[in-house]
Design a protein that fits this description.
0% strand; single chain; membrane; 34 residues; mainly alpha
């Protein structure tokens, strides 16, 4: 199990939240355009 530093955790957290928000935005736009 690799050891993650605080900065790595922040990057992972931001990456997960960023991709989730991006997906929600895409679904919202798709719903508006459909």
């Amino acid at each position: 199990m690799p050891h993650f530093g605080p900065l790595d955790w922040v990057l992972i957290y931001c990456g997960v939240w960023g991709s989730t928000l991006c997906l929600m935005c895409a679904v919202w736009w798709w719903g508006k355009l459909a």
